[in-house]
Amino acid sequence: MNLQENTRRIKEIMVLVEQNWTKTILKHLKKNPDPNEEILKDVDPFLKRIFYNVQSEYGSPLKVTYGKRSLDQNKSAGGVEGSAHLDGLALDIKLDSTCRSCIKKLVDLSSKHGALGIGVYKDADVIHIDIRRGAKRKNGTRAWSNKGLPIPEWVLPEITKHLNQ
């Protein structure tokens, strides 16, 4: 075979590999649908992108407990009036544990990928991210924790870094 034939054959093989890869991905998605798909369906597309980028870089699946909420859902969840969840501009992400290094990593990744508001709930197995207009902030008194409680001290360095980026 000459160089042109080799090049043509390599291109043909690459097309076949790409087609098989696409089929494999589609099969995987059919067998393993995104567990967050329903919750994320009415969420702002930019916020979805932030979430998937964070999840990808985090290295393991993350569970979204709240995305867009109705007024009744927001009230039932203990959400505040005017919550970013009402407009699909906020997510609450739940971890399987209260691993401090995991929460810190999520705060860093959320900031890196464009979240403006970042909050850590008092039980510290859930973080809140949002993309409401305005400057980067920690929620609450420009900081955030569930029910207005202070952010846990152990995560303050990551929150401070977020605010100063």
Q: How would you concisely characterize the structure shown here?
A:
With 165 residues, this protein is α+β, with helices and mostly antiparallel strands. 45% of the residues lie in helices and 12% in strands.
Describe, in plain words, how this protein is organized in 3D.
It contains six helices and five strands. The termini are far apart. The mean pLDDT is 81. With 165 residues, it is α+β, with helices and mostly antiparallel strands. It has a five-stranded mixed sheet, with helices on one face. Strand 3 (117-120) and strand 4 form a beta hairpin. The protein has helices spanning 3-31, 37-40, 45-58, 71-76, 100-112, 156-164; strands at residues 63-66, 90-94, 117-120, 126-130, 137-138. It has two domains: 1-33; 37-164, Muramoyl-pentapeptide Carboxypeptidase, domain 2 (2-Layer Sandwich), CATH 3.30.1380.10.
Sheet-strand content, in percent, reads 5-15%
The level-1 CATH class of the largest domain: Alpha Beta
Number of helices: 6
Distance between the termini: 56 Å
Name the average pLDDT.
Answer: 81
Number of strands: 5
Structural class: alpha+beta
Describe the strand arrangement of the main beta sheet, using strand numbers.
1-2-4-3-5
Number of domains: 2
The residue fraction in helices comes out at: 40-55%
Q: Any idea of the CATH topology of the largest domain?
A: Muramoyl-pentapeptide Carboxypeptidase, domain 2
Radius of gyration: 20 Å
Envelope shape: elongated
CATH architecture of the largest domain: 2-Layer Sandwich
**pLDDT < 50 stretches:** none
Major β-sheet profile: 5 strands, mixed
